[in-house]
Design brief:
27 strands, seven-stranded mixed beta sheet, single chain, alpha+beta, 552 residues, 25% strand, 4 domains, Dihydrolipoamide Transferase, OB fold (Dihydrolipoamide Acetyltransferase, E2P)
């Protein structure tokens, strides 16, 4: 028997990774490749395996420690091997001689031992898609045998809102790609296999003395077989499954799952794990979310139906009344429905109405038409609405806020980004125009047109629809004299714009035809009071009536 220092192997370039689990205890008998500890870096979690079969003598790290390649994490007792036994039998007394006898033969063995982690095949899985599911594969960027770097595009996918590259999480050689153009994939799906190189560092000269017995270990595997049944106790570490009531930080899950959980606001200890040793996977998280959405849709989710007494919708067989067709809702439609239910039931809405006299604005806009065409842009009322809303947000900053999720603070924003609701064949989407207060009418007209086209073509990226301070929803020429828009939380206000109407207005001496634009301002009464809302809408209508005020 010989003692061997256990060191952290090559981590594929990662440094200072967190120890998130100790998988063995002193006295445990382990087989080669059994997990000793589990570490987690920025991109993935991985097991640190036993380099050889043996008995754990000590573990010198604990959960929460940070380790790097080459760090000592413990010590184990290994069998020197049958090969050493024959040489050592001539000099049974000095144990060190027995350890050194096989050293010359095993001198080169550390390289293969290290090489065990040098090259391995790994499944390529689809990373977090920002909530998208069953997206279309529209391009295969690599083929079997290609050498790629970390971050290189593997495939290109397209969802209802955007297209995006799926990058490689590692450097290596593509072994196979198991999807083709036209397939649908979701977060966590396997799309191929990559052979990665861990950088098998043969410079383990300093470590060669200790790993020498490890290199000889494959031959004497039968030696510890006398205790071969003992390693079967390793699965007893499954108590991860019993961690259901611990904080998320202590739940067994990889960084990508933790990140997705944070983005979705899900405490991981509520999610039932199905992965190895009780690991929470993205599939587990998605299954949990689907379950909650299903409850929400039935009116039974906490805070929506269950806690405020709303009974679930009854199940009705509509075919008994006549012919019907049942068609699936689009992803955008389902997402919009869920958000509207949440916002309408959790935000205390108030809506105020006013009409803006935009007669002069329309005259000015039409006068600019020829010049705008020379610039290659089309001036519609939209850039004027964006500019007026931005000015109102600066004038009445109580609208340019969000409620902090702790319920005790208000987040005041020093930027002005405005969402613009766009009706598309697949549903309503809201691209965001950034820094509206800093842009001119031509620039806003060009950007609004580009965003609307991208929205209708399904080419918006997730970032294009994030970060708005306020939203404008314009029915334009669609029709209607007014409506009450639902606040798009975490924003606290939304402006509904209806169809322009020519009405007689009294000017003090007579009635004259004026172009009146109906406006409806909905706001979150938790953050905005009625006085501020009145000032906001009055100021906005005044700016639209006389765009010269934007110069003040």
């Amino acid at each position: 028997m010989a003692k061997q220092v256990i060191k952290v192997p090559d981590l594929g370039g990662a440094d200072q990774v967190d120890v998130i689990e100790i998988a063995v205890a002193v006295g445990d008998t382990v087989a080669e490749e059994d997990a000793l500890i589990v570490v987690e870096g920025d991109k993935a979690s991985m097991d640190v395996p036993a380099p050889v079969a043996g008995k754990i003598l000590s573990i010198s790290v604990k959960e929460g420690d940070k380790v790097s390649e080459g760090d000592v994490i413990g010590e184990m007792e290994t069998d020197a091997g049958d090969d050493a036994g024959s040489d050592a039998s001539e000099e049974p007394a000095p144990a060190p001689a027995a350890e050194q006898a096989p050293a010359p033969a095993a001198e080169e063995a550390p390289a293969p031992a290290a090489a065990a982690g040098v090259e391995k095949e790994e499944e390529i899985v689809v990373p977090d898609l920002g909530g998208a599911e069953s997206v279309d594969v529209i391009e295969i960027s690599v083929s079997a045998g290609d050498e790629i770097e970390e971050g290189d595009a593997l495939i290109v996918v397209e969802g209802d809102k955007a297209s995006m590259d799926v990058p490689s999480a590692a450097t290596g050689t593509i072994v196979s790609i198991s999807v083709k153009e036209g397939d649908k994939v979701s977060t966590g799906d396997v799309i191929g296999v990559i052979k990665t190189r861990s950088g098998g560092d043969s410079g383990g000269g300093g470590a060669s003395a200790a790993p020498a017995p490890a290199a000889a270990a494959p031959a004497p595997v039968p030696a510890p077989t006398s205790e071969a049944e003992a390693p079967q106790e390793a699965p007893k570490r499954d108590p991860h499954v019993e961690r259901d009531h611990t904080p998320s930080a202590e739940v067994y899950a990889g960084p990508a799952v933790r990140k997705l959980g944070r983005e979705l606001g899900v405490t991981l200890n509520k999610v039932k794990p199905t992965g190895p040793r009780g690991r929470v996977t993205k599939d587990d998280l998605h299954a949990y979310i689907k379950e909650q959405v299903k409850k929400a849709e039935s009116g039974a989710a906490a805070g929506i139906g269950g806690n405020i007494g709303i009974a679930p919708m009854p199940e009705i067989d509509f075919s008994q009344f006549g012919p019907v067709r049942v068609e699936p809702m689009s992803k955008i439609h389902k997402l919009t429905a869920a958000n509207m239910v949440r916002n309408s039931l959790t935000v205390p809405h108030v809506t105020q109405f006013d009409d803006a006299d935009i007669t002069d604005l329309e005259d000015f806009r039409k006068a600019m038409k020829a010049e705008a065409e020379k610039r290659g842009v089309k001036i519609t009322p939209v850039p004027f609405l964006l500019k007026a809303a931005a000015a109102a947000l600066r004038e009445v900053p109580s609208f340019n806020v969000s409620l902090h999720n702790d319920g005790e603070h208000i987040v005041k924003k020093d930027y002005v980004h405005i969402g613009m609701a766009v009706d598309t064949p697949k549903g309503l989407v809201v691209p965001v125009i950034r820094d509206v207060d800093k842009k001119g009418l031509y620039e806003l007209a060009e950007e609004a047109t580009a965003m609307a086209v991208a929205a209708r073509d399904g080419k918006l990226k997730p970032r294009d629809m994030q970060g708005a301070c306020f939203t404008i929803s314009s029915l334009g020429a669609i029709g209607g004299t007014g409506f009450t828009p639902i606040v798009n939380a975490p924003e606290v206000g939304i402006l509904g714009v209806s169809k322009l109407a020519i009405r007689p207005e009294w000017n003090g001496s007579e009635f004259v035809p004026r172009k009146m634009l109906p406006l409806a301002l909905s706001y979150d009464h938790r953050a905005v009071n009625g006085g501020d809302a009145g000032r906001f809408l009055t100021y906005l209508a005044g700016v639209l009536a006389d765009v010269r005020k934007l110069l003040l």
